[in-house]
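Hey team,

Filing this mostly as a record. A colleague (T.K.) asked me to run one chain through the structure pipeline before their review meeting, and I want the input and output archived in the tracker in case anyone asks later how it was produced. No errors, nothing strange. Just documentation.

Input sequence:
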Amino acid sequence: MTDIVIFHSALGLRPGVQGFADHLRAAGHTVHVPDLYDGHVFDDLDAGIAYRDTLGIPEIGQRAQNAVADLPTDLVYSGFSLGAAPAQLLAQTRPGARGAVLMHGALPSAAFAVPWPVVVPLEIHTMRDDAWVDLPIAAALADESTDGQLHLYPGSGHLFDDPDLLDYDPAASVLMRKRILSFLTRL
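Output structure:
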């Protein structure tokens, strides 16, 4: 099976992230879930973003790199919202990536000074009307991979996989998880 690293959103390492990891583990995958926030968890996105800003984006990137330093290089990198950025950073810049799954976020590949490695498979999952996601950027990133896919779900919720949040959408969550398991099986 596949070794996967999952990075949490700006809300921190919430039970919903652990539940997603457990779902992948139940399918036989090895899943690592580093805590980039040192135990800080938020219910309010504004508070989580404020904490992100106190740490700074470079520090979050460094913490993500430190979290995988002792792991094998043939990982699938995954992240929710804020966590999509370190997942993308590592998939794009750390040699040996098997793939990437970005949920609720994507950056232009130019943000990391190197193009997306065309042979690294990529899936991006977001709702069609999520105000936090720039769809043209997500589509362009998916197009950079020879095996890239942008999956759009109806609605405007952001963290729609977390059952403890208002944006939770059970149908979208089930479909996203099914697609991700298929993707991981292919790898």
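Quick notes for T.K.: The first strand starts at residue 3 and ends at 7. The mean pLDDT is 97.
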